[in-house]
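Morning F.,

Quick status update on the modeling queue. The single chain you submitted on Monday has been processed. Sequence for confirmation:
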Amino acid sequence: MRWILSAAFILLGISGYAQDGSPDAALLSEKSASNENVTIVWSTSNPDVLDNFIDPYFDYSAEEQCWNNVNLVVMGPAVNVLSENQNLQTELSGLISNGLNVKACKYSTEKYNAKSKLTQVGIEVENVYDIVTQNLKDEYRHLVAI
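Structure tokens below.
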């Protein structure tokens, strides 16, 4: 009788390790998926940041398939610069159509009265503080602030 119980526990243990749907496997899968995303925060008033960092880095990342998702958060003075510069809007619109996920800070768009200009380009306007906080707290996500 003991050997039957022992065999049953061993089989249960082995089947538990073999299940891809186990909680451990799900956690590893979630960590792996979030590890494949990068978020760039553009907050400076320097328009060269888009031309000399964001655009070439996005192109490189797409070409080399570095990340599953490249996200851009635009906040602070960058919102104002972007809303006033048609060339930057056109450039960013092209990046969006190529797969760059872009969100603008709701507070900043209200402060600079820029919401309509940015949404026309295809930028989502929302509270981005939770996105930034989540990326800072999660050891499996990547955040670049410029």
